[in-house]
Amino acid sequence: MKDHPKWNFEEFTTFLLLYASNADLELSPDEEVEMMKRLDLKKYEAIKEEYESSSDYEIIQTILSYKGLYFPTIERTKELLSLIKSQFFADGEFSILEKNTFRILKKLL
Prior knowledge:
This protein is an all-alpha fold.
């Protein structure tokens, strides 16, 4: 896993939402708008650059490394999954690829 700065909750969830948003291999403008509401533009672009320069393995390892910090309980994990599901619907669709990614994330988290 690459070294990266310790992310706060909003930065981490933005990284996670980037992963979710790219499940169907396309980041729609509506999905990006939703994520950009979480951070200022400079921070968003830095998180997006980190995401784009990471391998699938590194992305999963990064997500898992923050699990205990930000989502240590079942209730917090449910909140996270709800946030992810909302992101999937940002473009008005919940594709089969997104559904499969959601299932994977449910198991990981």
